[in-house]
Automatic annotation (TrEMBL):
Family per similarity comment: Belongs to the succinate dehydrogenase/fumarate reductase iron-sulfur protein family.
Domain of life of the source: Bacteria
Lineage: Bacteria, Bacillati, Actinomycetota, Actinomycetes, Mycobacteriales
Class in the EC hierarchy, top level: oxidoreductase
Keywords for the protein's UniProt record, in alphabetical order: 2Fe-2S, 3Fe-4S, 4Fe-4S, Iron, Iron-sulfur, Metal-binding, Oxidoreductase, Tricarboxylic acid cycle
Keyword Thylakoid set for record: no
Name under which the protein is recorded: succinate dehydrogenase
Length: 249
């Protein structure tokens, strides 16, 4: 398979970036986007040239490390798949792929396709934890939680924090990410003590760093974990609950 690639090259956060053209004559349809970049980099290294920098880790779709744009879409052309699981099987021979970093003011470029996503970490630092009594772990049956609620919480806990939702949103909002965390933690038996404080602090940090929700739902369309768009409602719901209860829990 022959492909024409336009790959973003940027030496550092304060450098001017540009697209670099690369022609690949021997791509394989079963390659992932990351494997395609590996293949390109191997060729550059053999020629004594600098390879493109991009982030990856597990390559199993669970770590959230990989993140880039392919033809303007976070992760790749397929819906709800991380970059490491995006195959070239549906890419036509002779196609052009434009590969670049996540585009968001909250995600400054570090180098090439690597961006700084610590803004998501700062949201979690404001309340992404639970309070427990130190000591011996309690028996499992002392924490009552029905199966349906547990499954609903786990569905939202599946968020891998990749930041695709932010890159997809024209306003650079992180409401799907933050809402998923608020839904998950609000349903758990532990952590009730800081529920109100968590909502206030996490949402304040969200609105300080990220844009407002666009209401279009692009975020759910690209989320590799399949977080439902309804998670966004938790932003106002949990904040309103904290305001009217006027309590930390």
């Amino acid at each position: 398979m022959k492909l024409h690639l336009e790959i973003w090259r940027q030496a550092g956060p304060y450098s001017e970036g540009h697209f670099e053209s690369i022609n690949v004559d021997d791509a394989v349809s079963q390659m992932s986007v990351l494997e395609l970049l590996d293949h390109v980099n191997n060729g550059l290294i053999e020629e004594g040239k600098e390879p493109f920098a991009f982030a990856s880790d597990c390559r199993e779709g669970i770590c959230g490390t990989c993140g880039l744009m392919v033809n303007g879409r976070p992760h790749g052309l397929e819906k709800n798949q991380p970059a490491c699981q995006q195959r070239l099987v549906n890419v036509a021979d002779g196609s052009t792929l434009k590969i670049e970093p996540f585009r968001s003011a909250a995600f400054p470029v570090i180098k090439d396709m690597i961006v700084d996503r610590s803004a998501l970490d700062r949201v979690m630092q404001q309340g992404g934890y639970v309070s427990i009594n130190a000591g011996t772990a309690p028996d499992a049956d002392t924490l009552h939680m029905d199966h349906k609620t547990a499954e609903f919480a786990l569905d939202h806990a599946a968020c891998i924090g990749c930041g695709a939702c932010v890159a997809a949103c024209p306003n650079g909002a992180a409401h799907l990410f933050t809402g998923a965390k608020l839904v998950h933690l609000s349903l758990m038996p532990l952590g009730k003590e800081e529920r109100g404080r968590r909502a206030r602090d996490m949402v304040d940090q969200l609105e300080t760093t990220f844009g407002h929700c666009s209401l279009y739902g692009e975020c759910a369309d690209v989320c590799p974990a399949g977080i439902p768009l309804t998670a966004v409602a938790a932003i106002n719901k949990e904040r309103a609950r904290a305001f009217f209860s006027n309590k930390d829990h």
